[in-house]
Amino acid sequence: MTQRTPIRRDARTGHLAVALLLAAGGLPVLPLRAGKGPFGNCPTCTNNACGGRPNMKTPGPCACPLPCHAWAAATTDARVLTAAPWAAAWQHAEAVAYHPGGAGVTVVDLDSAAAVDWARATLPPTRTVATTRGEHWIYQGTTRSVNGVQAGVDLKSTQSYVRWRGPGTGDMAALPDVVRALATTKSAMARPATHAVAVAAPASGGQCPHRSPAYLERGIAMAEQRITDTASGVHATVYRTFLAVLSAHGRCGCLTETHIGRLFTAAQAKGESPRHCTDAWSNAQTALGM
């Protein structure tokens, strides 16, 4: 994210014009609708049919020609930004957003005066952008996106998006270790807690194709390992794994609540919430017509 020509944000400057200037400078952008949610870019994924999180803020494992919403849809391609359906979306957009991780930066989102004071006392100076309630401190380098690392402090980098509020002032510093440590510590604290499974196993209805219990056990073990080994895109991996398990074992009556519990436990150990696990399981069932 190099220094760019300042862009005035006033009523005479359309959001699309701003987006095209930013994209030309290498910043992956996307339109935001009212409520700071991304616009959809594909009818197939309406209402998160692809397994995305609520309000289209996180993409699911869709097989669209292009990523269709949330941070994954951010692009520097002017053809994508001006083509349908985004051509119409820009006319109703509330703001322009960008994907910090795609630009190789991390935004420390300071949402209060107290948070700004904390940053000034704790973090090295860097490029700063004024916001409605605080400031964005932008560093060169990427890390996990984690909310609530301190009171009023969120980290926005990979798998996230941030509203564009101008180029800011000051020279951009390298991402400091103290910020990386905040992301790691917060993520580790969120992982240990697991909750009881509240999802019933699918009822039997088809002929069982499994020749031995070992076949099912091996499949569940492989699914657990797939979730455990993923280093990025955890949400998408969990959904795809649930989809694969249900496709192979969901109609014959072999799958039990114990098996489902093992999958949910593996997902929660990677930071997924119980509700998100339930939603991903339900979305996989819907996709398979179960």
Question: What does it look like?
Answer:
The protein has 290 residues and is of the alpha+beta class. The protein has 9 helices and 9 strands. The protein has helices spanning 15-24, 78-82, 86-92, 113-122, 177-190, 213-229, 234-249, 257-269, 274-287; strands at residues 29-32, 95-98, 105-110, 127-130, 135-140, 146-150, 153-156, 162-163, 173-174. The strands form 2 sheets. Strands 3, 4, 5, 6, 7 and 9 form a 6-stranded mixed β-sheet that branches. A hairpin with a 4-residue loop joins strand 4 and strand 5. Helix 6 (213-229) packs antiparallel against helix 7, helix 6 (213-229) packs parallel to helix 8 (257-269) and helix 7 (234-249) packs across helix 9 (274-287). The model is unreliable at 2-13 and 187-197 (pLDDT under 50).
Write out key terms for the chains shown.
290 residues; alpha+beta; 6-stranded mixed sheet; 3-stranded antiparallel sheet; 9 helices; 9 strands; 13% strand; globular; disordered N terminus
